[in-house]
User: Fold this.
Amino acid sequence: MAHGEVKHDYHLVNPSPWPFVGSVGALVTAIGAVVLMRGLTAEEGNFFLSQGQWTLFLIGMGILVTTCIGWWGDVIKESRQGDHTPVVDVGLRYGMILFIASEVMFFVAWFWVFFELAIFHEHRAAWSVPTWDEATAQAWANWPPPGVEAFDPFHLPLINTLILLLSGTTVTWAHHALQQGDRNGARLGLLLTVLLGAVFTWVQFGVEYPIAGFAFGNQGETTNATLYGASFFMATGFHGFHVIIGTIFLSVCLLRLLMGHFTPQKHFGLEAAAWYWHFVDVVWLFLFTFVYVVPYLTMQ
Assistant:
């Protein structure tokens, strides 16, 4: 690649507004989230809001979404212009690997919370304070806590497990089909993966969550029951959010495939999406085992 009189394999990007715009969007989103969670309103003197508690948060999210579309759109243009040399391609791969590693540690935090509560609940019961009544002490002595009706993992959770495992197969099929020059197979595999991701989201958020035998946290529940619901919905809910992100990622790849952007030799966008999707699959297998199956069997 040439930049002026110097030829090298590295891509020096043009000046871009997106880092600054993204920073502004992140700041506005963070302030909006604090305002939203704290329950402040315009009537209480909060000058940030004029139309309700969601306004600032939604504005920030809109800026972030615009930044993602614009920034990643520029990356796609750079790839189409030939700026992604083999050296740059290696850097992109390392970047995606490090991103997935950071996501692994994100989920480690939620698993840590769930395991700490599950393994050391008896120790917590021994730490009972004078203000605890007998019901509270008894709640801490058991996991899952009394009053919690754990999901039967061999119904809806098992269905979702099979859906995700099948989607991992279809995205691998799409990748290998593209490598072999079978564009029709790649399109069909990607389309099935996107549909399976959408079905998983519908089953989890539209069918499973509404019939849960516990809540994120309600008044009147024991502290332990509230922690069970909070740790469950934070772990599985964030995974569901990642499924939505992965579905969007794969949908963009499908659109790019239809537009002829990918070739058997150059298709890192699809590879990155497949890596991310397999990561989502693996996280779900851990969730299914330790958040669904183990608590359910413990209660039997």
Remarks:
- The first strand starts at residue 2 and ends at 3.
